[in-house]
Amino acid sequence: AAGGRALRWANGRVPTRGFRASPRARVAMPSWVIDRYGSNEVLRFTREMMFPIIHFPNEVIIKVHAASLNPIDLSMRSGYGATALNMKRDPLKLKTGETEFPLTLGRDVSGVVMECGLGVSYFKPGDEVWAAIPPWKQGTLSEFVVASGNEVSFKPKCLSHTEAAALPYVGLTAWSALNQVGGLNQSNCSGKRILILGASGGVGTFAVQLMKAWDAHVTAVCSHDASTLVKKLGADDVIDYKSGNLEEQLKTLPLFDFILDNVGGSTEKWALDLLKKWSGATYVTLVTPFLINMDKLGVADGMLQTGVTVGSKTLKHLLKGVHYRWAFFMPSGPSLDEIAELVDSGKIQPVIDEVFSFSEVPEAFLKLEGGHARGKTVINVISRQ
């Protein structure tokens, strides 16, 4: 599918579609927004959110059928990462006096293309698509959202919009960590021993399935009440972190070729000792101080401190014979193309904890805030998915 995307974007292969005007001009739409950072009371429903506009020729407007929540939505609601995200939104500081508010949260979308920019040839109005919208853009808890064409992919045919909305953000985060940063792929995973810390969350459940699809041996760490789910997803060994000292339990197992850490904290102090030394074994963590450093220290000092931290840790562990890496969510339509193929072939399925209606967004945030979810919290923007 990714190759097909490249072919269809090649010059002269497909006529460029022009901008498609909607039947009736729209200036406002229903959305859930925040006007300041804080806890759940800052969420506000409005019918007067500005309708998205295509500013660049490669953009599309998507009518949102379903969205879902991720931990980053809780963090962004509270102001986490605001310094870095505002710099990304306006790097030259041209919008003096303007703020990011009203801000729409939500990263995942499954819906239907409504309008296309002049440079979009891969999609047309009416196509069913899915995407993960980067956190510096307006989010998906809205009737419509605008996205770059290279962030969008055709929705897996076997999934409803509700099911599809559970996968893009966690799927791309895991894909970034395992494939783009970790270097794992379908041809080099057979027989490799993979450890996934925090295996019952959104990223963890996707990572377990992806590694099994690529024929790896997967050891998953989660709580006992999630063990049945994680085993069902294909994990070979499931370790209950509450049943005793986790480090000691893992030390009784053979060493690993790769560790994906969704937990962070004190785990990092001992987890790298579980890797095979001088064999190319890699530890990748999704818990990094990058945004925190920028919030606390400002852009320049925050970036400097982050660079020093990752550089020193990388060198320290390289001298011990293992690779240390950080990974982040990266929007990518071509990667979603590959994920869609795995979904349609039955190798990956969405894991949904609970589904809420569009009027229940605050309740959905409270559910996510309560923790210990088994899969994703999904929002049906259009009912009857």
From TrEMBL:
Species of origin: Calcarius ornatus (Chestnut-collared longspur)
Pathway: Cofactor biosynthesis; ubiquinone biosynthesis
Family under the similarity heading: Belongs to the zinc-containing alcohol dehydrogenase family. Quinone oxidoreductase subfamily.
Catalytic activity from the UniProt record: 3-demethylubiquinone-10 + NADH + 2 H(+) = 3-demethylubiquinol-10 + NAD(+); 3-demethylubiquinone-10 + NADPH + 2 H(+) = 3-demethylubiquinol-10 + NADP(+); a 3-demethylubiquinone + NADH + 2 H(+) = a 3-demethylubiquinol + NAD(+); a 3-demethylubiquinone + NADPH + 2 H(+) = a 3-demethylubiquinol + NADP(+)
Keywords in alphabetical order: Acetylation, Membrane, Mitochondrion, Mitochondrion outer membrane, NADP, Neurogenesis, Nucleotide-binding, Oxidoreductase, Transit peptide, Ubiquinone biosynthesis
Principal location class: mitochondrion
InterPro entries: ADH-like_N, ER, GroES-like_sf, NAD(P)-bd_dom_sf, Quin_OxRdtase/zeta-crystal_CS, RTN4IP1, YIM1/Zinc_Alcohol_DH_Fams
Annotated ranges, domain Enoyl reductase (ER): 38-379
Annotated compartments: Mitochondrion matrix; Mitochondrion outer membrane
PANTHER family the UniProt entry points to: ALCOHOL DEHYDROGENASE RELATED (PTHR11695), RETICULON-4-INTERACTING PROTEIN 1, MITOCHONDRIAL (PTHR11695:SF294)
Gene that produces this protein: Rtn4ip1
Pfam families listed in its UniProt record: ADH_N, ADH_zinc_N_2
Entry protein name: NAD(P)H oxidoreductase RTN4IP1, mitochondrial
Any one GO molecular function term: zinc ion binding
Gene3D superfamilies: Medium-chain alcohol dehydrogenases, catalytic domain (3.90.180.10), NAD(P)-binding Rossmann-like Domain (3.40.50.720)
GO biological process: nervous system development; ubiquinone biosynthetic process
Entry's Gene Ontology cellular component terms: mitochondrial matrix; mitochondrial outer membrane
